[in-house]
Each structure stands twice: as C-alpha cells, then as structure tokens.
Automatic annotation (TrEMBL):
SUPFAM superfamilies from the UniProt entry: lambda repressor-like DNA-binding domains
Keywords: DNA-binding
Originating species: Halobacillus karajensis
InterPro entries documented for this protein: Cro/C1-type_HTH (IPR001387), Lambda_DNA-bd_dom_sf (IPR010982)
Protein name per UniProt: Helix-turn-helix domain protein
Residue ranges occupied by any HTH cro/C1-type domain in the UniProt entry: 5-59
Gene Ontology molecular function, alphabetical: DNA binding
Native organism taxonomy: Bacteria, Bacillati, Bacillota, Bacilli, Bacillales
Amino acid sequence: MQTKLKGIRSYHKITAEEMAKEIGVHKDAYLGKENGRTEFKLNEMFTIAKRFNMRVDDLFSPTTSRHEKED
C-alpha cells in the first residue's frame, strides 16, 4: 500500500528527518513507515495530518497503482 504522504511531504519541501522529529521517531523508523514496511501509529497519523492541514483518511488512504486499475 502506498499513501500520498511522500509526495505531499516532498511538495512542501519537508525532509524525512523533519517529519521524524515531529512525530518523535528516528529518521530510519519514519522512512520505514512512509515506505510501508511498518505502520504509523494513530497518534502519528493525526500529527502528520495536522501538519499538512489534511484529514487522516485523505492523507493515509491507499493509492491505486496503474496495474491495480487495469485488473
């Protein structure tokens, strides 16, 4: 599952390290979450959504890849 988070973070020119500090985790842990290897905790999702003035479900809803759309 991919989320919109990486693209939104990049658009706002916020580094992974800055986001990691904001939610209180190490940069590597943050990147693991952003890349889908581990899951964000609910409180982390709310913190990130608030940072971007977005709803949690809008930010963390799965995106559909082109391959999935063709099936």
